Predict the structure of Exodeoxyribonuclease 7 small subunit.
Amino acid sequence: MLVAMSEQSDAIAALSFEAALKRLEEIVRLLESGEASLDQSIELYNEGDALRRQCEARLEAAQARIEKIQLGRDGAPAGTAPFDGG
């Protein structure tokens, strides 16, 4: 079981943000449909949680790289500053 979880984590880490988000949407659809058995639902939930954490981490990393434009007193761009999220 631990090997399978490690393999799943590796597979999730290898996904692009877009692919991870698409898979997460598929999981939500499956869970909401009620088509999955209880055991499958638990596995899907765990996979979905790992995908959610991966997407959040990638978004936070991208946000940290964003710079916002600083405007001077005259309203013209005067440089950049790190994005502060606010």
